[in-house]
Amino acid sequence: MSATDTPTSTVTLTETAADKVRGFLVDQPDVDDVALRVAVQAGGCAGFRYALFFDDRQLDGDLIETQHGVTVRVDKMSTPYIQGAVIDWKESLEASGFSIENPNASGSCACGDSATF
């Protein structure tokens, strides 16, 4: 793989999602080292589930990026599953929350929180 083939981002955090992340952290003390961790874990109704949480740890092999003022960390085991995904914030009358559009997923369940690879 040449340098031109290397993706510029592991995941893309939309500006709307970044605004929401910053909003969650605004009243929290000592958030200088806190990042949004994006992971894929075994479980969920489709086989794997997405995990998004705040984390102050930096794991060996993490891919770290800053997008729209938010630090995003992806662990090395999750990277192949989530490479190229777009994380957005959706609000509707039925529900509000983060949504992940993942080009690597071969299927997902109705809840949108889990995927098949």
Name some characteristics of this structure.
six-stranded mixed beta sheet; three-stranded mixed beta sheet; single chain; 117 residues; 40% strand; mainly beta; 2 helices; 9 strands
Which helices and strands occur, and which strands form pairs?
Blueprint: E1 11-13, H1 15-25, E2 35-42, E3 48-55, E4 63-67, E5 70-74, H2 79-82, E6 85-91, E7 96-101, E8 107-108, E9 114-116
Parallel strand pairs: 1-6, 2-5
Antiparallel strand pairs: 2-3, 3-9, 4-5, 6-7, 8-9
Number of strands: 9
Order of helices and strands: EHEEEEHEEEE
User: What Rg is obtained from the alpha carbons, in whole angstroms?
Assistant: 14 Å
Spatial shape: globular
Low-confidence runs of at least 5 consecutive residues: 1-7
Helix content: 10-25%
Q: How would you classify the helix and strand content by structural class?
A: mainly beta
Give the biggest sheet.
6 strands, mixed
| Number of helical segments with 4 or more residues | 2
Bin the strand percentage. Answer: 35-45%
Oligomer: single chain
Strand order of the largest sheet: 4-5-2-3-9-8
Overall description:
This protein has 2 helices and 9 strands, in the order E-H-E-E-E-E-H-E-E-E-E. With 117 residues, it is mainly β. Mean pLDDT is 84; it is low at 1-7.
Give the gist of this structure.
The chain has 117 residues and is mainly beta. It is built from 2 helices and 9 strands, in the order βαββββαββββ.
